[in-house]
Amino acid sequence: MVKVTHIITSLSTGGAELSLLKLLEGSPDLRASARVISLRDLGTVGPRLSALGVPVTAIGVHGSIPTPAAMLRLRRLVRATHPVLLQGWMYHGNLAALAARAWLPRRVPLVWNIRHSVYSLTTEKPLTAMLIRLGAVLSRRPDRIIYNSRVAAAQHEALGYVADRTVIIPNGFDTDRFAPGEQHRAGVRAELGLTPETPLVGVVGRYHPMKDYANFLRAVALVRQECPTARFVMAGTDVTAANTDLMGLARDLGVGNIVFPIGEVTDTARLMAALDLLCLSSSSEGFPNVVGEAMSCGVPCVATDVGDAAWIVGDSGVVVPARNPVALAAGLTMLLRESTSTCAELGRKARRRIEEHFTLPAITRQYADLYAALTASTGPQ
């Protein structure tokens, strides 16, 4: 087994953090040989990694720039793990892993993992834009750069990241956990005060400009005119009734009584399986996990054409332009009007696509094969 030390920016609930968790959950071999260092704190994912038996340590960096004391803690921790390979996650984690390699007594392979799409540097935070540019300058240093999205790889290469280090490994999905479950339909609707027959569309994602909840709500206002019985559940961090911006817009659009903000959910698989449709309204994504999770549950998706959404969906749903509520509403309305049998067939097609291309075991094998290939010539440590 290849002893891998993972250095990640944080362990809060997010796409990269959950992908690391799923990777180690999905492979006993990768899990047994892993060590995880978070530059910030243990967040919500750290305890879950610890419960798997993975040693997890947080450096405790506050703010965006680590102090010399934090870097000394990182140096001590990395040297203590005796890695055979270093794996960085996200821009801060990637650069920290690059620095950490220089502190080891012998050179070990270094892998960066980039899970962010960049449509324009001008829309990024100044520090993020600076880190992206710095990463381009240093991109010959890692042995490989993993992207979870074809679009993200092309975007970063256009910004100067070297192409001969590129490896694309998409996200993987646990098709046992995320599976069709008709029994969840009535339960979720009852919790929302709805009848079992109510058409239910879901959007799942934290409250952030890139998720474009305004696009979703404007589409809902249009869908309501054509499909008045449909209802819409919104789940994610800060997506609650206490969010005055979100719910104020819903009321202004006249849909406050048909949208249900339920905040962050712990059992996403149950919610997904209860939906008739999953909506991705984002203006920017890399590899949107929620689309694959819904498809694995046999739920058709209407998604904006961002990141690799179109690749994931294939012919099992509808893909529309981003930032276009009219097009988004048209896609939702079209599927809401389809017959039950047609939607059921789309759902089966969606799940087959995940089973053929994006299962968690297949993705963990790609990581394991990459690690093995990179360490084959370095020998044990």
Reconstruct the topology from this structure.
Layout: E1 4-8, H1 15-26, H2 28-32, E2 34-38, H3 46-51, E3 56-58, H4 68-81, E4 85-89, H5 90-102, E5 110-114, H6 126-137, E6 144-147, H7 150-158, E7 166-168, H8 183-192, E8 200-204, H9 213-226, E9 231-235, H10 244-252, E10 259-263, H11 268-274, E11 277-280, H12 289-296, E12 301-304, H13 309-313, E13 318-320, H14 325-337, H15 340-357, H16 360-375
Parallel strand pairs: 1-2, 1-4, 2-3, 4-5, 5-6, 6-7, 8-9, 8-11, 9-10, 11-12, 12-13
Distance between the termini: 12 Å
Biggest sheet strand order reads 3-2-1-4-5-6-7
Biggest beta sheet attributes: 7 strands, parallel
Question: What order do the SSEs take from the amino end to the carboxyl end, as H and E?
Answer: EHHEHEHEHEHEHEHEHEHEHEHEHEHHH
- Radius of gyration over all CA atoms, rounded: 21 Å
Mean pLDDT: 95
Structure class: alpha/beta
- β-strand amount: 5-15%
Number of strands: 13
Any idea what the shape is? Answer: globular
